[in-house]
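B., you asked whether I could sanity-check this one before it goes into the benchmark set. Here's the sequence:
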Amino acid sequence: MMFRFLVIAFILLLVEVYSYQVVRTLLKSKWFLYGYQVLSLIVFVYIFYTIFNYDRKVGQTHRSLFALGLMLTIYLPKIVMTVFMFGEDVVRLIAGSINYFIEYDNSPEFLPSRRKFVSQIALGLASVPFLSLIYGITVGKYNYKVIRQNIFFPDLPDSFDGFTITHISDIHSGSFDNPDKINYAVDLINEQNSDILLFTGDIVNAKAEEMHPWIDTFNRLTKPSFGKYSILGNHDYGAYLEWDSEEAKAKNFEEIKDLHRQIDFKLLLNEHVKLKKDGQEISLVGVENWGKHFGEMGDLVKASEGLTDKDFKVLMSHDPSHWEEKVQHDDKHFQLTLSGHTHGMQFGIEIPGYFKWSLAQYMYKCWAGLYESAGRYVYVNRGFGFHAYPGRVGIMPEITVIRLKKGQNIA
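And here's what the prediction gave me:
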């Protein structure tokens, strides 16, 4: 662990040296340069002091969130500058070598001087991630978007044609810091007036107590005519903390499960319920977390016991890798799976209908929005809250409204 931190510290010091070259090339004021060096040192020390003092028994705090956000906001732009300045050094080295060894120019300065316009370009490009990350922390993390999605199924019971589902995921209540924004989001969910409200896991970052200040807020969620149902996510198992004992960990897990009852959600633990309308029914199936990168508590066989491939099923499974690895190939034909988990990495670019990119796509085939395979669908919600980086850039917090439609999907 210590070696890894030292490597990171060395890299960031190298980034500091190179980014300083940009500032020194563009600005000649001695006092400004001293001030820049002092401020950079303070930020560097603060970030690494916070990292070294991270307590795995406490977990993520608002202070650690701030430190990570500060590190990304400061160092990502500086890395952009470093790439440019390092590239310029390569060019300068080549030019100096040609002058010295080929043209036999034995001038005192082996390397040509830095070019101001290169530093200007580097600074201009670095301002893009800097401003974006600032926006993500101050505005983006609570910039809730309602995304509507119609999905067509030829085997949907006629009575459920037009049935609406409001889907939220990844609340991560331990990261919240603005009650007004959360109240606004709750109102936005209520305004959708859907037939059912589904939540696909990660109610906390790690500890049940994180949700306690928000219970009254989430109790304002209106109960639709078909109810409110939920499942567990990977963070709900307390696996990312060091516990004093297995008993303490187990107690926290039971308290997390009880949180769902306290906000009037029916928690489905590898089980299913029947939703009935006008003499017809569909099955809502909920599994515990099953993830390619985190445990396999989800038991699809147990959860769907008694169901057949002829039954219309909506599956709630937190991690979309479950759909990728298991669900889409299951003989029982789960028509629709609802997931979350990825957050879209809270950073990316989306132009609806044209372009979608995030680092999440290199970890998950299905990372945001709707995906289909052989008539089986998975919808991956981009998440309600945030975790680690205290912001969102390009990938906004999402409230999904899915309308089930009878018929063939229109390509």
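One thing to flag: Residues 146-406 form a domain with the Purple Acid Phosphatase; chain A, domain 2 fold (CATH 3.60.21). Otherwise nothing jumped out at me.
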